[in-house]
Amino acid sequence: MAAAEPTPPPALSIKALGRDFNEATVLRGVELELAAGGSLAILGPNGAGKTTLLRIIAGLLRPSRGSLSVLGAELPRGRWQLRGRVGMLGHAPLLYRELSGRENLRFAARLHGLKDDGEGPIEALLEQVGMSRRADLRVEEMSAGMVQRLSLCRALLPQPELLLADEPLSHLDPGARRELAPLLGPAPGRTRVIVSHDPSTAQTEPGMVLGLGANGSQAFYIDSGELDLTILETLYGGGPK
Amino acid sequence: MSAPSPRILPFLAVGLIATAFGLVFFYAPLEADQGFIQKIFYLHVPLAITALVGFMLAAVHAIIHLRTGDPIHDARAYVSIHMSVIFGVAVLLTGAIWARASWGKWWVWDEPTLVSFLIVFLLYATYYPLRYAIVERDRQARYASVFAITAGAFVPLNFIAVRLAEPLIHPRTLGAANGGLPAEMMFTFLVSLAGMGLLWVTLVRFELAAKASRGHLKRLRRNLLDPDQDAIATRGLGGRIEPLIEAERA
Amino acid sequence: MNPELRRRTPTLRAARVILAKDLRIELRTLQSLSAMLLFSLTTFVLFRYGLDRTSLEGSLASGVLLMTILFAAVLGIGRLFVAEREQGGFDAFALAPIDGSALFYAKVTAQLIYLAILEAFALPVFAVLFLSDWSGLGALTAVLALLNLGLALIGTIVSVMATNSRARDLLTPLLLLPLLVPLMISAASAAAPLLDADGPSFAEFPKWLALLGLYDLIFGLIGWAVFDYLIED
Q1: Which among A88, A95, A110 is the nearest to C95, CB-wise?
Q2: For chain B, what is the domain count?
Q3: B211 touching chain C per CB within 8 A
Q4: Is the pLDDT of residue C4 over 60?
Q5: What is the residue extent of each domain of chain C?
């Protein structure tokens, strides 16, 4: 609507956003703007509405109040414009247990209409997460860490402009975290929103940080450089674990 | 559903129904074959027509609900179906009484209209378990609307199928072979139909109003409780935040 | 100009992809199909003793056959969306550049295929076990085809509702059976004269086929129109 702006439109613009589940308010007063190509870390204690916010941004859930625009699409009305441009790495791996890793990825590639059923990108991604040789196992035979790697491949496969990740490295050991972290890192043309339980990652990475309080209200929205122990202690009521 | 004066509606409904009863007992002629019991016709058929029209209205509200997303139309569809199901119980009861009196059996399977109505009633009875099986309110409303639309389309198909399947049709009061209803019977029937229709509308409005005030109460209570909720959440953190606040104040 | 439109997967192509995925999983696990086939065979045996008859004809024959198919179909319908629900398929579809109706087409077709396989098994078994005259079976397949379409259409609508509720196994038969009454009346009325002991009669056949077709058409249109509302969160 605001076409007269010379700067590129923000990837994410959220105003007075709130969400209820029946009588309970799980998210309230979220207000932020994120430039295209930027990264946003969402911090907060359990039940602060982090996952809810992520699902609303993905267009999977309607907001109860407020307005938001994601990649230039006004949600929830313009949800169809987002389809195929958002990669989501959530709690559910979005993989079929009875299919092998490769079959799952090929299915995703076909749904997204990738060229040659995504043959090249699939192999490249599997190589990057160290799954090339184990990708013909069925998902039900895989360990949690392998499923997590595969799920990451699935989210990155369509080369999303917006990558949403919900505690993406939670099932992995430290070695695997180091191995996979670059895949989740900044990339040209990609905006990232990452929910984290671990404030230290947010502190070390450049970008914006959104803090959600225990009742789902916005505690702060600051640059990661401004993040310090006092702010975190207030947010978590006890300091980072 | 925007009649000008809702206050007058209940009185109008009661008045019309009282008039209809007067007409049924003192004005409408006795039917030659069936005698006095035929008078249940003036209760049974208007109830059935009102219930079916109510189901159709619910489908219309459901379509509007899906198009606009406005929860009021879901509430209207819900209350319409609810009231029509209650009317439906009365239809089946009066139908059974009528069947017992004229054919000696409480239920007759070769009476297609009654059987069709039973099937429709059974379908709409599943509306409640569907609603209550879905916790999240938006989804509940959407699914209930889809049900109301599907069931609305189902009603005429069901009547066609049951009627076609039944080659033996009993002679009925309405549309009888000898040129339809006598004028006195028709008039009584129409007054009764109008009375039942108004009664349905009145009850639907009452329940909608009750629902609205219940919802209002819930919202008020939530607004009252909300700060407390925050406090509970804060306390849930093991009292670790109070020292921080205290420290800030000091 | 419109980058958001650059990668939309055509609906029929997406439906084919989803269908292929469903068939691959079904072929690998045989969960629905084996249950449906086994159920139909057991039910025939039960009817043999429940009715105490070794041969059937007319309305009794059509009743036994159609009720068996109906209840076997309910088994498959209940499972249509379980994998999508439990393994996150609904989210994946909502994120992918596809139309919601692709999922509808895919699931209806999958159910049609399961029903065709079920009947390819159950009809010969039924004929061998109970029928003395087989001349009406050809016409019967036309009735079954239209019945299958109705079962698949209503089944898909009901299944997605039941799957997303907390009373999944309860809700599927509860909603499904009353909705299928007109369909079953039509199918039974069409099938009964075909299974008469003294050869099939076709007097009312076109009328019932037309009603079956009308039912399929109306619920096909409704399913197509409302399906998007059923899969959004």
Answers
A1: A88
A2: 1
A3: no
A4: no
A5: 8-231
